[in-house]
Amino acid sequence: MTNKVLYLITLLLLVSCGNKKSEGEQLRPVNIAEAKAAEGGETVSFPGQTRSEEEVNVSFRISGPITSVKVKEGDYVNKGQTIATMDVRDYQLQLAATQAEYNRIKADAERVIGMYREGTTTAQNYDLARYGLQQITQKLDNHRNQLADTRLAAPVAGYVKEKLHEAGETVSAGMPIVTISSGGRVEVEINVSARDYARLKELSGFYCVIDALGSETYELERVRTSAVANATQLYSLRFALKGNYDRSKVTPGMSAMVYAHIAESGGGNVRIPSSAILDKNGKTSVFIYNKVDNIVRLKDVKVVEMSLDGSAVVVGLHLGEQVVATGVHYLVDGQKAKGIRN
Length: 342
Prior knowledge:
Elements: H1 2-24, E1 28-34, E2 36-37, E3 41-59, E4 64-69, E5 76-77, E6 82-86, H2 89-118, H3 123-148, E7 151-153, E8 158-163, E9 170-171, E10 176-192, H4 194-198, E11 203-210, E12 217-225, E13 235-241, E14 255-263, E15 270-273, E16 278-280, E17 283-290, E18 295-300, E19 302-306, E20 311-315, E21 322-324, E22 337-341
Parallel strand pairs: 1-22
Antiparallel strand pairs: 1-21, 2-15, 3-10, 3-14, 4-6, 4-9, 5-8, 6-7, 8-10, 10-13, 11-12, 11-14, 12-13, 15-20, 16-17, 17-18, 19-20
Helix pairs in contact: 2-3
């Protein structure tokens, strides 16, 4: 009886130790808050859309009726894969006629060149034969290329974003058949008015919210700006998503809202809870929460103003960054945590 009691006690102790170990491995919950625009400035927003880093309009180099389009929107295509084909009959007849003409001129040219080497014809006849052969050779190569161009191949690997024409339609050379989105990076594109374009230097802290992904914010970096307005008098801006993000969720074609801050003095100040500020070793810092890897990182800031409402204005953060709002003295740089929004 005593052995059974000891066995049960030992088993309970092992289970208890295992539970404590499991609890120790859980992520530490932390309250997070978003860095918002400080007073004295203006937050502006622009509707946009996620796009691939590179988009290619694929078109035939020749004119004619399309016989088949072998892809549909959303398909992934490899570089060199056949996208569409064109009726080859006219180009086959053209090549056959040129081939016959080439054979005749080549035979005549070889005869004249042989006579010139034997000294039985003039240099003028030799030049005419040589130039005629070069001309028909170039014509033959051109018609061979045109026949080969009845097959439209993907110039890059990527996804078919849009199919613009169907089999049976007649298209001109250079008319886009499909649009392919390629490149590994997802960008956000917006169009701004001439007024906003003129004050781009005053805008800072770009970030976006993607409609399909809830309220998560994504910090942005401006990578391209058009120098000329389009037909609707708008200027195009492209932004790259900074940091780590789930590429399986953020895909081209999603609607997004891009935000920026305009400070009166151009300072780029933001407001955060004062409880987020950590004074240690002569430095003023905050913990930034990364929602992708659930890690908190220290980031140095400069306090501009402490308010009675429990908030602080700081320099050194971007609009939309997630800061740990409470319990910062119990965290360490690089610690795993689980962000909870108040």
